Amino acid sequence: MASKKLIGLLDQAVARELQVAIQYMWQHVRASGFKSPPIADALKKAAITEMKHAEAIAERMDYLGGAATTKPAPITIGKTLKEMLKLDIKAEGEAIKLYKEIIALADKEGDVTTRRMAEGILGDEESHDDEFRRLAEGL
Hints:
- By secondary structure, this protein is mainly alpha-helical.
- It has one domain (4-137): Ferritin.
- Helices cover 78% and strands 0% of the residues.
- It has 4 helices and no strands.
- The longest helix has 28 residues, at 36-63.
- The chain is elongated.
């Protein structure tokens, strides 16, 4: 079974996924201004994807004998579209770093399934980072 360290990293990932699912949902609701429609749409889609990530990681943790947290990491909304995207780019950067760490440890432990799950999520996080950066350029 997985090491305590890997279970701990997966738990951090669940907390982070819950954080950004809520963060992006509220940002989507609060986004305003004539430049907001494409940003609000991207945030809504990202929030749904992040919730699916939390579920997948929690299911994997359960299989590995761990119990996922129900508490999100600190949520920061921002007041303007620019602030929101700046916070979101930071969150995605942190996620990318975390998933690379999970992938490396899962690989070291021979946990192919966890590695593959984390690689898929990493791809989504990199895509979100890219989209948020492109949207921020227009502000």
